Amino acid sequence: SFVIDHTSVGGLGDSFYEYLLKAWLMSDKTDHEARKMYDDAVEAIEKHLIKKSRGGLVFIGEWKNGHLEKKMGHLACFAGGMFALGADGSRMDKAGHYLELGAEIARTCHESYDRTALKLGPESFKFDGAVEAVAVRQAEKYYILRPEVIETYWYLWRFTHDPRYRQWGWEAALAIEKYCRVSGGFSGVKDVYSSTPTHDDVQQSFFLAETLKYLSLKFS
Question: List the disulfide bonds (predicted).
């Protein structure tokens, strides 16, 4: 964001990086300016924002007020798929490196789901000391049917055909069906760490447009 000292691959900036890569792809790989901007951005993200936790989880932090906050948002989990999609055509023949980086991000985001009571991921999760891939603040423990983790599973499945990505997607699908389905459709939940969740009574538009789309594509 240009008006506050906050750099993120999640909210405020995620679509910019995604669309640089997709502008290049939609141009049949002729928009070299878009590809250069994407490569520059990815190199900067890797240099300044990507870290590995003590427990070996690779995450994308957020730069705030001159220091790196060891917190990753659910929105930033889309980047695993972006790194995989952008691997082909990357500089210095680093396609394998970026595919592996995408896989590491996917694993971290899966852990954020797996470490909850509902097997659904929180809005954001921290990597502070003994706490890894877990939300700390109550205001970050909700799941509102977001697609980014399932989106990354889909890209990794398409590029690697590793069955774990279908399995992880199926785990999420079952959890959504079990905990988010309500009489009128599907609802977000307020605390993924509570085995008796409270619904927020909202079905977000992106649930149909993205979450179910990527699940459908993964099993088609």
Answer: 77-109
SS3 category, 4: coil
Across the beta sheet with 62-64, the strand order is 6-7, 62-64, 67-69
CA-nearest of 77, 81, 88 to 24 is 88
The pTM score is 0.95
Q: Which domains does the chain have, with CATH numbers?
A: 6-219 (1.50.10.10)
CA atoms of 166 and 122, how far apart (whole Å): 21
**Residue among 70, 79, 60, 59 nearest 17 (CA):** 79
- Which has more pLDDT, 4 or 176? 176
Question: Which pLDDT band, with edges at 50, 70 and 90, does 12 fall under?
Answer: low
pLDDT above 60 (res 58): yes
> Catalytic pick from 62, 104, 111, 123?
123
Q: Which own/partner pairs from 2-9 qualify as long-range (CB within 8 Å, at least 24 positions apart)?
A: 5/63, 5/64, 5/65, 5/66, 6/62, 6/63, 6/64, 6/65, 7/48, 7/49, 7/62, 7/63, 7/64, 8/62, 8/63, 8/73, 8/76, 9/45, 9/49, 9/60, 9/76, 9/79
